[in-house]
Amino acid sequence: MSENSFYRDYDVPQDLQFRTADIIRMGGLECTAQLSPKYFQDVFEAPNKITKVSVKLSFSVATNEILVRGEIAGKRQVQCARCLKMTEQDFAEEFLETYSNKAEIIDIMLQVRQTLALTEDIRFLCKPDCKGLCPQCGQDLNDGPCGCKPVNLSPFAELKGKFK
After folding, report:
1. Contact in structure between 77 and 84 (CB atoms under 8 Å)
2. Sheet order of strands, 86-100 included
3. pLDDT tens across 70-109, in order?
4. First to last CA, the chain
5. Angle at 100 between CA 97 and CA 105, to 5 degrees
6. Sign (positive or negative) of CA dihedral 142, 147, 153, 157
7. Which of 6, 17, 40, 90 has the most other CB atoms within 10 Å of its CB?
């Protein structure tokens, strides 16, 4: 497909629902959009949240289907699993999906939401060597030592020395 066969000035719907007939009529589509974070408030568990999202979409028309290649990028605020500080992280993900050209509407929002949900890590860290919080006083150990006496947290510590 030649570069001129794609319309670059297309009013992208904020809900990312595209009419299949429009895409077929244009012979494909390339577009970008900034999306409101309100569409993604429930994608991550609180207090983590998405603060900025942009999508770049490329629709290619084939005989019986439409291929959609998407790139999602943005920023998210996440809580560190060790020190509990909120930190901002960039993210970027891609997806590839096919849709029937017989469908009336191609809903890309569902694919974007699913892709974003898969980017949520089980544990976020503000930095790889985060020291976390002191288990006794709660001070952030990244700011320096707290002065608490180290405690052996092993459940077997009481048994030490009882058996020879």
Report:
1. no
2. 29-35, 49-61, 65-79, 86-100
3. 999 999 999 999 999 999 999 999 999 999 999 999 999 9
4. 79
5. 90
6. positive
7. 40
